[in-house]
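User: For my dataset I need records formatted as: sequence, then structure tokens, nothing else. Please produce one.
Assistant:
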Amino acid sequence: MFSMRTSVGAMFALRQMQIHQATIHRSMMRISSGSRINSAADDPAGLGISERMRAQIRGLTMAARNTQQSINMLETSWGGLNETHAMLQRMRELVVQAAHDPTGDAGAYLLNIEFQELLRGINGIAGSTHYNRINLIDGTFGGQQGAAGLGRIGLDGNGIEITGDGSLRGNGTLTIRRGDDGELEALLRLGDEVVRGEIGAGEITFGFENPDGSPRAEVRVGITGELREGVSAGIQFAGNVVSAAGATTARSGDHGTLQIGANGGSDQRMNVRMGDMSAIGLRLHGLDISTVANARAVLDSGALDDAVDAVSRQRAQISAQVSRLEHTYNNLQNSIINLTASESTIRDADIAAEMMNLARANLLLQASQAMLAQAMQLERNFITMMLQSMNN
């Protein structure tokens, strides 16, 4: 008789072999993926920290993209205002020339033709300076969308009625402003054509005329409450129907908001204000230099000087904002680099160290396999010896 005994040496060698196999498996995963954390079990705390860092890095990356787009947008408006400035300078030259007696009323009349075309050109630039279909310098940047926004300046959200045998087509801009006499006045612009409206009880009436002075169309805007200062762009004129749907409305003090940070809060955003740089907003609508007397009146009023100053202030503001955004962009890039480096120390594998671990584990695995085989051989030798002794 003999008793079977447990081979502790073989069990120990087997356990070590399993540990070395797990080490080899883990090192191979890290080397092949380049990541130190391939499952939550590798480093639960590190996984949570690195995921928060990744969220911040991706937010900073998008904020940097937003900042670059904001710079492009502001430079677009700056370019439009550059041409507005050039036209204002030319208009002032024309006024000075028309105010000269030797020019005469006949010469002033001819100069007024170019003057009026430049006024229309300023309106055209204000209406066509877009970024991603957003009007930038017509006074509606940062305004509200839709008919509900139109209600803020007292327009009926159901639309505007056109009567008469003519028709109007295109996008219109309505401006409610306070005139020199302190009273509110209404101006409606369709393309480069601008008319002043008559504010009555419950409605504003605009009369569009043909070049020969005959009536072309009448636009009536219903007032649905207190009429307040503001600018509305995007009113759609087509046939005999004018729709307020999708229009953009802004009032004095409205601004566009740029998200230039990865988190919430006012310090992560930047407010951008752009005034109405059309001829209406610059208070140039209605100026006329068709006579020497008119030209002198325009020159004495300082309207063109005020307009030049207004555009200069807006361009200076844009330049300052672009400078700020460029520094913000650089800071965001630095933050992205530093946070990525920090996240890398948590998530990325140390390839050199893992190669060393792999070689060590391979060597120890071979040794444990040899020891397991040796332990099994010793067990067989012991059993053989016991059987021989029993037979004897």
